[in-house]
């Protein structure tokens, strides 16, 4: 595993497919270095990027990727990525680089790599660590796996959207496997924060005291502070939604089962996210784990 330093960038055209919470800031940051084409299933979200200047928005994936040397997918799940790239196929250029940022799990990544091979694309399995604010600030951490042949071009993209790149392997889906392990930790921290504050309140203790005690100590972190602030302020504007957390937590649980790991915390956390979603909190930030009754 290696960590890269910034690489020099080129003037290629990048097609960004998916301009949601992560995809929109990714496209904006790429525009500082590249020409950017964009497509989103809900056109209005992509149109906002055109209004901010310099990004061309297209009606179909095939139109967006036509003439693009690099394709970046930032979509919800493996099925959606495959459906979108299938729609894009008529516009793909053989030899183009495909950077797959979505968290889709190892099995889906293998299927996407197969699609890339059939269409002559250079595929990089590159899920990101970080949500809305790191994406806006170009501070994502990119977990990357893929061939050495086009790493310079891929790293120019990574440098435009992230603070560093961790090369895991030359072979996908190694990066996606690492992302699942990291997500297991992220979800445990989310639920741990939510349950600690909930328990304090139920015991008649001001939950702000939990934050007061943790602050500055060995348990403190920016992540803890942000999720605790969301709970205490009742502000669940999504940086990563409960619905997306259900999807990713399911991938973690499935991967653990396939690997023969007894992932008790991950399994329980998945059910907690599912409960929060059933209770109407699916579009809120995953800190709404706190609201699961």
UniProtKB/TrEMBL annotation:
<keyword id="KW-0560">Oxidoreductase</keyword>
<dbReference type="InterPro" id="IPR015815">
    <property type="entry name" value="HIBADH-related"/>
</dbReference>
<feature type="domain" description="3-hydroxyisobutyrate dehydrogenase-like NAD-binding">
    <location>
        <begin position="175"/>
        <end position="289"/>
    </location>
</feature>
<dbReference type="GO" id="GO:0008442">
    <property type="term" value="F:3-hydroxyisobutyrate dehydrogenase activity"/>
</dbReference>
<dbReference type="InterPro" id="IPR013328">
    <property type="entry name" value="6PGD_dom2"/>
</dbReference>
<dbReference type="Pfam" id="PF14833">
    <property type="entry name" value="NAD_binding_11"/>
</dbReference>
<feature type="active site">
    <location>
        <position position="179"/>
    </location>
</feature>
<dbReference type="InterPro" id="IPR029154">
    <property type="entry name" value="HIBADH-like_NADP-bd"/>
</dbReference>
<dbReference type="GO" id="GO:0051287">
    <property type="term" value="F:NAD binding"/>
</dbReference>
<dbReference type="InterPro" id="IPR008927">
    <property type="entry name" value="6-PGluconate_DH-like_C_sf"/>
</dbReference>
<dbReference type="InterPro" id="IPR036291">
    <property type="entry name" value="NAD(P)-bd_dom_sf"/>
</dbReference>
<feature type="domain" description="6-phosphogluconate dehydrogenase NADP-binding">
    <location>
        <begin position="13"/>
        <end position="167"/>
    </location>
</feature>
<dbReference type="InterPro" id="IPR051265">
    <property type="entry name" value="HIBADH-related_NP60_sf"/>
</dbReference>
<protein>
    <submittedName>
        <fullName>3-hydroxyisobutyrate dehydrogenase</fullName>
        <ecNumber>1.1.1.31</ecNumber>
    </submittedName>
</protein>
<comment type="similarity">
    <text>Belongs to the HIBADH-related family.</text>
</comment>
<dbReference type="InterPro" id="IPR006115">
    <property type="entry name" value="6PGDH_NADP-bd"/>
</dbReference>
<keyword id="KW-0520">NAD</keyword>
<dbReference type="GO" id="GO:0050661">
    <property type="term" value="F:NADP binding"/>
</dbReference>
<dbReference type="Pfam" id="PF03446">
    <property type="entry name" value="NAD_binding_2"/>
</dbReference>
